């Protein structure tokens, strides 16, 4: 697993992340995920409210990608992770509390995204490179 830096955490807290999954036939599904946030230093969490295509894709084994960008700074990150679904326990309690604090409906699932890799989306020579392969 990869570790989130303070800069990554700040960007995830202040910008709207976009998440993507794929169907078992390889059709991409993507959209904004305003409930997506940092769970711990190597895990993201979001509330799954609709129970639609994203959920179906994850239940069939899709990885999940999350992109977050700061357009003004021409900076950003792409996270690739393995989703884990919860309907009870600490992650679900976290999701229910987040929903209550933010005027959202109770989620159907809490989704932990265990981060497998992180890429830079920063403009310039390091664009698209894995964070652990960037030049010093």
From TrEMBL:
- Could you tell me which InterPro entries the record lists for this protein? Pyridox_Oxase_N, Split_barrel_FMN-bd
Q: Which Pfam families does the record associate with it?
A: PNPOx_N (PF01243)
Domain (Pyridoxamine 5'-phosphate oxidase N-terminal) spans 5-95
**Record protein name field:** Pyridoxamine 5'-phosphate oxidase
| Classification via SUPFAM superfamilies | FMN-binding split barrel
According to its UniProt entry, this protein's organism is Paenirhodobacter populi
Give me the segments passing through the membrane: none
């Amino acid at each position: 697993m990869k570790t989130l830096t303070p800069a990554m955490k700040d960007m995830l807290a202040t910008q709207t992340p976009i998440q993507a999954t794929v169907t078992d036939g390889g059709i991409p599904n993507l959209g904004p995920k305003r409930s997506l946030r940092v769970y711990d230093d190597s895990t993201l969490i979001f509330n799954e409210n609709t129970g639609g295509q994203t959920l179906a894709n994850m239940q069939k084994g899709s990885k999940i990608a999350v992109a977050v960008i700061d357009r003004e700074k021409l900076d950003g990150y792409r996270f690739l992770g393995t989703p884990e679904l919860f309907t009870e326990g600490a992650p679900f309690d976290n999701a229910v509390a987040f929903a209550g604090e933010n005027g959202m409906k109770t989620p159907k699932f809490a989704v932990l995204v265990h981060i497998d890799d992180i890429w830079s989306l920063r403009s310039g020579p390091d664009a698209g490179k894995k964070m652990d392969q960037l030049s010093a």
